[in-house]
Amino acid sequence: MAGMVYLVGAGPGDYRLISVRACDCLKKAQVVVYDRLADHRILRYAPDEAEYIYVGKASSRHTMKQADINQLLVDKAKEGKCVVRLKGGDPFVFGRGGEEALLLEKNGLPFDIVPGITSAIAVPAYAGIPVTHRAVATSFAVITGHEDPMKGASNMRWDKLATGVDTLVFLMGVANLPYITSQLISNGRPADTPAAVIRWGTKPEQRVLVTDLEHVAKEVAEAKIKPPAIFIVGEVVKLREKLAWFDRLDTHPLFGQNVVVTRAREQASKLTDALEELGACCIEVPAIALREPSDAYAAADAAIAELSSYDWIIFTSANGVRRFFARLFAAGRDARALGSCHIAAIGSATAASLRECGLAADVVPAEYRAEAVVEALADSVGQGTRILLPRAQEAREVLPDSLRAKGAVVDVVPVYETVAAAEDTEGICKKLAAGEIQWVTFTSSSTVTNFLKIIKDTALLKHTRTACIGPVTAETCRKNGIEPDVVAEEYTIEGLTRAICQA
User: Do 359 and 388 form a contact (C-beta atoms < 8 A)?
Assistant: First the structure.
């Protein structure tokens, strides 16, 4: 039985601009064939067990020839696979999607087209340049800057393009700027026509050069601007002076800052989203991964079986809440089983996770650390008080030791373990060594110790600022010879984000 091929546009660069339809296709993909302009975070929508095939193309450097890509789609579909061909921008706007679809049709194979937001419109928009404006431009054209070399003679109508269209948007044209500009000027476009080149548009790495038609080729060469970039010509370019929004530091104070997020993969998105909303470019390098404890939940399950015997349950992290309740539900019980217990949460994020489970914490200390929990419970804990502490397998002993010193009986039960994440580290080490990373964020002591195992040499951080979620994490940095540049006063993701902005 023949499979199905989805020719999917991934959008112009910002992974959040992908369509709902595209995400739905990726979720059921068995094979994903993707190119270099598709942000890798988009691939997370596809199943882990899918086959991933990279066929990216850079200027003059092709991983796979187009004819081979076309045949690859045919071959995988004939195997009965659900195939997603993920392409930057839109499949039918200089994306070679038409060629791929024609070969599928020739072989009698089914396919769907999922349009994507084309960079021809989105990239200028992110630079504050509308391709049309009623008072300035009533027409625009999207033009390839790199014609098919197999055609022989060019069929570009420069005499019509130069003066017949208000706004010209050239894709893949940076390498050919001298030729393009000379053709436009010689065919009647004024040399002083405003022009702009935008590299990595819609991404935090976005770079915009504004000049005019006569000088753009020289200035781009001097600035060493390389693909991927678009070239836009027309009076609309002037509107950037008033409409620039994405790269404004007053609204996006972290624009252009490369920030490493070291949280576990399943947790990273919250911090990444908060930082990228402020303009940062986040590089997720999970220093830790969460897995079941070494006793396979034996201690946790035993404690859950006798919950009614505890006076207090203290949660020290949102992870602890989620993992504990997963075991509670697995035992066929729910939040009612905690009805006889008082509940303490070490901080607002932990308390929020409890609320998601239908419970409100009785105690949330003003300061989110173990010592503050002990102080908050001073009048409630005494000789014989039974306390359950579901937490990470390895954690500071300050909390249980301090409670035991007051006469409490404390059962510490691991509900998860943090381990060093297995990641490809070569790329991040190169970026650190080159001074391309402005910030590294640490959200727990384990992210510090495991990230240092990843990079192996703290000297790589000499050009980088470090931000810690709180004093405990900061102290772990100091013990490893790193003096944090920022320590959040509020020990939450929001507090950490705010502290970085203020710095």
Answer: no
3-state class (DSSP) for residue 313: strand
Amino acid letter, residue 374: V
Tell the burial category of 485 from Cβ atoms under 10 Å away from its Cβ (0-12, 13-18, 19+): middle
Cis peptide before 110 (omega within 30 of 0): no
DSSP alpha helix (H) spans, 420-470: 426-433, 445-455
Angle of helix 445-455 versus helix 471-479 axis, rounded to 10: 30
Torsion of CA 30, 36, 39, 42, to 10 degrees: -10
The pLDDT tens digits of the residues spanning 346-386 come to: 888 899 999 999 999 999 988 777 788 888 898 899 999 99
Q: What's residue 356's pLDDT?
A: 93
Q: By the 8 A CB rule, do 7 and 59 touch?
A: no
Find the CATH number of the domain harbouring 381: 3.40.50.10090
Catalytic residues: 35, 57, 172
User: 396 and 340 in one domain?
Assistant: yes
Among 363, 376, 368, which residue's Cα sits nearest to residue 468? 368
145-187 per-position pLDDT tens digit: 876 555 556 788 999 999 999 999 999 889 899 999 999 999 9
Is 431 found in the same domain as 409?
no
Residue 223 region, left (φ>0) first, then alpha (ψ -120 to 50), else beta? alpha
Do 128 and 108 fall into the same domain?
no
Determine contact, residues 89/71, Cβ cutoff 8 Å. no
CATH number reported for the structural domain that contains residue 142 in this entry: 3.30.950.10
Q: How many CA atoms lie within 13 A of 114 on its CB side?
A: 22
pTM (predicted TM-score): 0.78
Q: What is the phi-psi region of residue 64: left when phi exceeds 0, alpha when psi lies from -120 to 50, beta otherwise?
A: beta
User: Tokens 């013990």 appear where?
Assistant: 479
Q: What angle do CA 393, 398, 404 make, to 5 degrees?
A: 100
Q: Which of these three, 416, 449, 476, is where a domain ends?
A: 416
Question: Is residue 249 situated within a structural domain?
Answer: no
- Domain-located, residue 164: yes
Amino acid at 318: A
Q: Which tens digits make up the pLDDT trace of 266-311?
A: 677 889 999 999 999 898 888 878 889 988 899 999 999 999 999 9
Residues 152 and 239 in one domain: yes
Range of the domain at 486: 258-287+421-502
101 is a domain residue: yes
Give the confidence band of 334 by pLDDT, cuts at 50, 70, 90: very high
Q: Would you say residue 251 lies in a domain? A: no
Selection from 220, 219, 235, 207 nearest residue 129 by Cα: 235
